[in-house]
Amino acid sequence: MSDFLYRSILIGIGATAIFDVWGLLLKHAFGLPGANWGLVGRWFCHLAGGTVYHEDISKARPFAYERAVGWIGHYAVGILFAAILLALVPSTWLQQPTLMTPLIVGLVTVGAGWFLLQPGMGAGIAASKRPNANQIRVLNIAGHIVFGLGLYASALLIR
């Protein structure tokens, strides 16, 4: 069990870091705004108090250290998704990781953003309340493909 947790942490942190590097690349190369981890942290803080959905998370009561909570939550979710991957593959997968399962997990995890986080923050299902919803959706899919590649690359690094 401790080996499973250890590997989940390493793979999840690695994949999430690769996802974050992707975001920085998009920001610097194309001027796209990065994720606002402070607002994500605000959502996590309200979630802990039992409130899942907000009309507009930016108007919800702020919390001290919400940015740190957002970053910690972001990496905790990455670790959770890595644990899900490791629960789905045979234990021998870690000795010879293959690409398909991490890519599928990466794509499926888009659903967490589309059906929980975005509606919870007031953006609607799959950012439907945003004027640039299609751009957001494409970036979400691309980012989660990168996350899936990060799961694979991180597994390769720790084998």
Radius of gyration: 16 Å
Secondary structure category: mainly alpha
- Beta fraction: under 5%
Shape: globular
Give a short account of the largest sheet.
none
Total domain count? 1
**What is the residue-averaged pLDDT?**
97
Describe the protein in words.
The chain has six helices and no strands. The protein is mainly α and 159 residues long. It has one domain. The model has no long low-confidence stretch (mean pLDDT 97).
Task: List the keywords.
159 residues, globular, 6 helices, 0% strand
Give the secondary structure arrangement, pairings included.
Blueprint: H1 2-30, H2 37-48, H3 66-88, H4 100-108, H5 110-121, H6 133-158
Helix pairs in contact: 1-3, 1-6, 2-3, 3-4, 4-6
Short recap of the structure:
The protein is 70% helix and 0% strand.
